[in-house]
Sequence to fold (354 residues):
Amino acid sequence: MRNIEKYCSILTDEVQGLLLTSRYSRMYAAEFDIAEGYAIVSAKGCRYYTDSRYIESAQRDLHGFEVLEFNASKPLFQQMNEAIKDFGIETLGFEEDYLTVTELRNFETRLEAKFVPMQKAMNLFRHTKEQWELERMTKAQEITDAAFAEVCPRIKEGMTEKELAAELIYCLYKNGAEGLSFDPIVVAGPNSSMPHGVPGDRRIQAGDFITMDFGVIYQGYCSDMTRTVALGFATEEMKEVYNTVLRAQLAGIAATKAGVSGKDVDLAARKVIEEAGYGAYFGHGYGHSLGLEIHEAPNCNARNEEGLPVHAVCSAEPGIYLPGKFGVRIEDCVVVEENGCTILTKSPKDLLIL
Ligand code: GLY
Ligand code: MN
Ligand code: MN
Fold:
């Protein structure tokens, strides 16, 4: 099935058209990435609008859409109204997560259609990854693993978190990254108790835990991994916390299979941390899905009572964070399968003391 057909499949008698505004939906529907544009999908025809900066590539590379240029003499709203008329659209489903209030008001004022939010339905088929998507995500993770192996020997006492983040970004691009799925988190020593701390000017010391959380974009798809390593030595407390997080992650991974709820996966990992007495120090959810975006549904957290679908790609990232002391997070990505899951992340997880 071509991706455009997935969007057509959610049209109804009440909603005869979809307005795609996010880069992610436009990319998924048209099977090609154009930085800026708009698309209308309907059973009677699909049109993609972009401007002179992208028109040549759009006309050559997009699949399933008639591609039209908008400019001052052919304004976007005028062309969209033509599509609304040509395709008999009365109501357009829109992406409420990707329109500002101003943009929506503009569309509602200028277009001759009613608007209804449809983000959830538009994202639903992205929960289950196709084989070609899994191949891209596998490659994205391979690049990320290779960068981790390359950055570890570069970690030296006295370098700042910012300097290490720069080395990490260099290693990611050197190994094939086409972009970063988010700004890497590099936090060391007491800063590592901040799960999403920002790399700063603190110098890394012997006895520090160093948490690095990073990922790349490869052919539009994200990777995401975290490793916590120690420099020089680790105290008994550091080892105990590290091994508790690792046991929790392995319990979560062991519980992951199609049909098991995100809540139960979270619980399997959380139980290990609670039983070890650190329950109060694991504040975030166990995991999220990813794909075109770094954070997608379905989540593996206490709020998701629905079963995970086959070939969702989810993160497995429990952590323990002791304020003022240190923190540990270990994150892999897994592909949900009928009878378990396949771990995409290949980097070792036993405590690494550099
Ligand atoms: N740093 C993004 C995440 O791990 O979810
Ligand atoms: Mn991460
Ligand atoms: Mn993550």
